Amino acid sequence: MAVKQDYYELLGMPRTAREEDIKKAFRKLAFQYHPDRNKDPEAEHKFREINEAYQVLSDPAKRRNYDRYGHAASEGWQEQGFDFGGLGDIFESFFGGHASGGTSSQRVPRKGDSLEVRLSLSFEEAVFGCEKEIETQRIESCPLCHGIGSKPGTNPDTCPECHGEGQIKKSQQSIFGRFTRLTTCPRCSGAGTIITNPCDQCHGKGRIKTKRKLTIKIPAGVDNGYPLQIKGEGSHGFYGGAPGDLYINLSVSPHKTFHRDGADIFYDVPINFAQAAIGDELEIPSLNGKIKLKVASGTQNGQVFRIKGKGIPRLNGRGKGDLFVRIKTVTPKHLNKEQQRLFQELARSLPQAELPEDKAERVIDG
């Protein structure tokens, strides 16, 4: 692979050059190497190189990245869709419109606009999946004129200004010589035809706004931000282009009891000192009803029990998450006399808790 020449060297500019100086250098070199003026076989290649250099160095953000990363930055732009090689860019920059030989973008098939709908779900609907009916509003071809724009039985007329081409050719003198510029016809907006007998339903536009109702299936396990896309349910395309897509923006309500983290759910269960000390069997809620949880004697505050497979279905179809139950030992705030007496007896019968020796020393030392 050939090594690219430094962009600053291509334009004969130092790295500290001002924007206006870079532009002047580019215009001079572009005039010198433009293929219409320079018949040298290498001229077009040179012209493309200086055009590429100018596209980067004339843009402050691209220039900063180039100064930092060199040509690796421009390779990243090309992967993202930036085209430094097309000669059309230079005509757009200096003259507007298209160079001779271009085609009108108005008549090229284009995909329709995509739509976005916000949909609220309860926690249970998101966990177990459901079907929801939504209402959308999209642009469709007029059913009366079938997208033509004219009344049924009539046809659009050829545009008298562009003679059906959709473009107007204009010659212009520039620093590169004389060029023919193509611009979209202002009368027909590039369609090549004009509507003299507009359709009563779409008023000559060929497209109408339509409300529709759709029943969509929500898969089990979705959450906020899940990308739910329905292909082909957006607005109709232009000039035979494919329809756009429908994106569902999900908003899931939190649960009053469970906390969710991905496919796992968490639940805090309160128990008293006696249950923690001697153990107990608890009945706790889950997504599928009540289940039994055996709490062993000596269970500590904050201890977590994991119950496998009692969480939320995974979207990839590989089983379910888990249910995590955290023990919260509750200290009673109000005791009657009998309870106080029992606790006092218990306190006298239990060994006094002691700090580890190193911790005790630190407390004594202050």
Mean pLDDT: 82
Approximate helicity band: 25-40%
Query: What's the total number of strands?
Result: 16
The helix count comes to 10
Radius of gyration, taken over Cα atoms and rounded to an integer in Å: 36 Å
Q: Which structural class is indicated by helix and strand composition?
A: alpha+beta
The biggest beta sheet, please? 4 strands, mixed
**Low-confidence parts, pLDDT < 50 over ≥5 residues?**
76-105, 359-366
Please trace the helix and strand order, writing H or E for each element. Answer: HHHHHHEEHEEEEEEEEEEHEEEEHH
Question: Shape from CA axes?
Answer: elongated
Quote the beta fraction.
25-35%
Q: How many angstroms does the end-to-end distance come to?
A: 72 Å
What do these coordinates show?
The chain is α+β, with helices and mostly antiparallel strands and 366 residues long. It has ten helices and 16 strands. The protein has helices at 7-11, 19-33, 43-57, 60-69, 71-79, 88-94, 123-128, 273-278, 337-349, 357-365; strands at 98-99, 115-121, 130-141, 157-158, 167-174, 177-184, 193-194, 207-218, 228-230, 246-252, 259-261, 264-271, 280-286, 289-295, 304-307, 323-329. The chain has a four-stranded mixed beta sheet with strand order 11-12-16-15. Strands 1-6-5 form a three-stranded antiparallel beta sheet, covered by helices on one side. Strands 2-10-9 form a three-stranded mixed beta sheet. A hairpin with a 2-residue loop joins strand 13 and strand 14 (289-295). The two termini are 72 Å apart.
